Task: structure prediction
Amino acid sequence: MQFVLEIAMGDPLYQQIRDQVVLALATGNLFPGDGLPPIRALAADLSINLHTVHKGYEMLEQEGYIHLNRRIGAVVAQPRPFRQDLGPWQQKLRILLAEAWTQGMSGEDMTLTVKDILSGFVPVDTVRPGAEG
Result:
């Protein structure tokens, strides 16, 4: 996996690492069992502090996206069953939509944008192309 961090973006670098892994999972570029770069190696490749990478990986582990193990490193976890409590998701989405709305984006444009983004996601149970299923 190739990470590209944008310092000018304003988001913390550890958050960008976390977000890029989540997007790679959603778009079928990472699958359960895949390894992530070792913390020290990724920090060196990105020319950032290793604690920044560690914090991003810790977030991913706490959210259930990866497993961290001193011996084998960071490995993508099997997806967890979805909890039916939509409250936290609705609150996050409400804030994002409110930001778009206050910047002048129409409801129709928001709907089209969401549909476009969702069309790039793969089902959670998708098997890596070419893998035995």
Remarks:
- The radius of gyration is 17 Å.
- The chain is about 50% helix and 5% strand.
- Residues 24 and 30 are 5 Å apart (CA to CA).
